[in-house]
Amino acid sequence: MNDARTRRGWREALRHAFAVNPPHEFSAEDRELVDRLARVIVARRMEFPATLWLETHRPLAWSAAQVLHMATPLLSAIGWGADAERLAGILDKPGAVEFLQSRLDELASKGEAATPDQMDLGSAAGE
Questions:
Q1: CA triplet 103, 108, 111: central angle to 5 degrees?
Q2: Where are the domains of the chain?
Q3: Which of 94, 93, 82 is nearest to 32 (CA)?
Q4: Would the pLDDT of 120 be above 70?
Q5: 3-state helix, strand, coil in the chain (%, to 5)
Q6: How crowded is residue 49: how many other Cβ atoms within 10 Å of its Cβ?
Q7: How crowded is residue 38: how many other Cβ atoms within 10 Å of its Cβ?
């Protein structure tokens, strides 16, 4: 009897041993920032380099978020502080790179690029 409980306990413990967290749901503000960033990338015709960078640096997304958190005071001096902090918050979440990649691919396939007045990311945030 005790042996059956032990086996069942081990099975239950191992069932979730390699579980991966589901992708995070992103807020409307997060989507707006990612869309703005993706439109600037599409307008500059840098979809391929951005895709390559995202794919090769996927494991470093959390580290990039920490660097953005540390650089926020410096970026605030040029008006990008709020956007940098929000982007760092996005990169902290599971599934962030996939979300960025999917939005970039979707906007590139539709040809939705930023207009010249939307090219400055800091001023678009109203800072």
A1: 125
A2: 27-124
A3: 82
A4: no
A5: 70, 0, 30
A6: 11
A7: 24
